[in-house]
Amino acid sequence: MPRLVLTVIGDDRAGLVSALADVVTAHDGNWEDSQLAELAGKFAGIVVVGVPDARVDALTAALRELDGLLEVTTHPGADVEAAAGGVADDASAQRLTVDLLGNDRPGIVREVSSVLSRHELSIETMTTGTREAPMAGGLLFEAHVVVRVPADSDTAGLRADLERLATELLVDIAVA
């Protein structure tokens, strides 16, 4: 069964997920996975749906009709069989989480993602945000990153590079 990756964005209001789910279900689609959030007054997310071959075009057309409520872009995803066997499914791979907390400043995401990229690691999930610093004033930047690490990766080198970065940026980085 083909899979579609939907990117969605719209002004945040009640009923957006329901409207999207109604269209998916009406076309015999199966909502498989999603990450959805309200950010800066916008509702945004990514949804993976499985849909029968014969219904792909009709579903894609129906999703365009949500314009005005949600802007939906469809992208072909790997079907379940093709997705199996990749790094994400490597039984010997492990997950590492990288948690960061420090004074907010431009470039933190670039610096952390550059270290991960140099180690040829792909980010599985990343959540970031800012909050008021309770005692010092200003903003704190927080990040929670999950990466999938193949068994042959140099995790000691990764940890050393992240510790060096934490010192340079004056932030706390924990790797678990």
UniProtKB/TrEMBL annotation:
ACT domain: residues covered: 5-80, 97-176
Stored PROSITE patterns: ACT
Alphabetical list of Gene3D superfamilies matching this protein: 3.30.70.260
Coiled-coil features, chain-numbered ranges: none
InterPro entries: ACT-like_dom_sf (IPR045865), ACT_dom (IPR002912), GcvR (IPR016867), UPF0237/GcvR_regulator (IPR050990)
Domain of life of the source: Bacteria
Name under which the protein is recorded: Glycine cleavage system regulatory protein
